[in-house]
């Protein structure tokens, strides 16, 4: 049962452009975040924005982000700079009868907030487990868990999902009435993210088969 | 012939983390940008970063971005606020024998700069053509071009590709020597973006076939 509260819009998390595409169901936020492999983290460094792809994982209403302890963006975010974290899925190219009405079908989640450096040993382990399982479901239990040195080399941030917005576009083009009779094809060319055939590490000892967590993996 | 100058690193466009993954060939920048459908535009609004998916197209060393004239991020960028524009392709999930060495194969281009509002009628038309052709190759010539009202409703920005960086990860996991003998599968699960079967607009008059620009489209 989804008993989560709806997305509560603040000024900056209120969708202004194309508000018909805005979604306020928290379950939709979860769905967009859970379906992504990478997000884009924005931080202000020296007055200018820096946007970098960043791995993440969700645990309830907490988003865990991680990277090297040496990354300037993560250091800034960990020092209390405001961040924006955006996950976008392109679902289709929308072909219209006019250049103007060409568009894209997509799902996009935008999270605003201030990240918190995760310092407690238990939550650090939880966060890394969540991140690993998001990237590679089943890998946490199947592989060697991080030792003390590896833990120390990983910057782990937590971002609350309180202030977030979701925008989704689906369906055929919105066209001008005047163009509808034009003999020009219009519609949607679907765009999908798919998984290919697993490529074993050349260093793998003989006889280690591709496990079902890899072979049977499906993207959400 | 690629006679473009190499990427000239400034302080913020110098790849610091994982510099072995950095590329300095301008042709690689073009390739990563040209292969994307959407980028993430970062702008500072009220001291905080805002990162939104944004359509784009490249013409030589100019990136054209567009959106509604009402979008706050585009207004800020057009008013001279520094921007960061990032295009990322996820190419694979890298499974390792340890949780720590799990990774992602990807190509990522990051462009820093200050955008310029395109005002000249000729360049505005060029920019919209570049954007349309990037999103939907062949559509500019095949569809109705923008009229005066549509042109006025579109904010068009130009971003110079002078200050940019490219980072690419390929190949199997980097592992600790100590883990190599573990009977744990390691390797790469490829991730690909593919196009599906065209879905005609229900309002299409009978007999308008799917054109080759749609049916025969290949992603770069």
UniProtKB/TrEMBL annotation, chains A, B:
Region (Disordered) residue spans: 1-21
Pfam family, one: Pyridox_ox_2
PANTHER family: 5-NITROIMIDAZOLE ANTIBIOTICS RESISTANCE PROTEIN, NIMA-FAMILY-RELATED PROTEIN-RELATED (PTHR34071), FLAVIN-NUCLEOTIDE-BINDING PROTEIN (PTHR34071:SF2)
Annotated protein name in UniProt: Nitroimidazol reductase NimA, pyridoxamine 5'-phosphate oxidase superfamily
């Amino acid at each position: 049962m989804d008993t989560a509260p709806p997305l509560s819009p603040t000024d900056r998390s209120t969708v202004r452009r194309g508000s018909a595409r805005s979604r306020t169901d928290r379950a939709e936020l979860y769905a967009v975040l859970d379906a992504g492999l990478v997000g884009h983290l924005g931080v202000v460094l020296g007055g200018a924005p820096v946007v970098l792809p960043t791995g993440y994982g969700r645990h309830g209403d907490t988003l865990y982000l991680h990277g090297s302890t040496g990354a300037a963006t993560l250091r800034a975010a960990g020092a209390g700079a405001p961040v924006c974290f955006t996950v976008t899925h392109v679902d289709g190219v929308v072909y219209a009868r006019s250049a103007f009405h060409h568009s894209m079908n997509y799902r996009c989640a935008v999270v605003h907030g201030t990240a918190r450096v995760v310092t407690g040993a238990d939550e650090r382990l939880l966060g890394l487990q969540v991140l690993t399982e998001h990237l590679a479901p089943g890998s946490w239990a199947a592989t060697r868990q991080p030792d003390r040195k590896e833990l120390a080399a990983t910057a782990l941030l937590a971002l609350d999902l309180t202030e977030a917005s979701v925008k989704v576009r689906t369906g055929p083009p919105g066209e001008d009435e005047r163009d509808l009779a034009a003999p020009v094809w219009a519609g949607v060319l679907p765009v999908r993210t798919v998984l290919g055939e697993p490529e074993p590490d050349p260093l793998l000892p003989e006889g280690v088969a591709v496990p079902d967590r890899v072979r049977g993996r499906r993207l959400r």
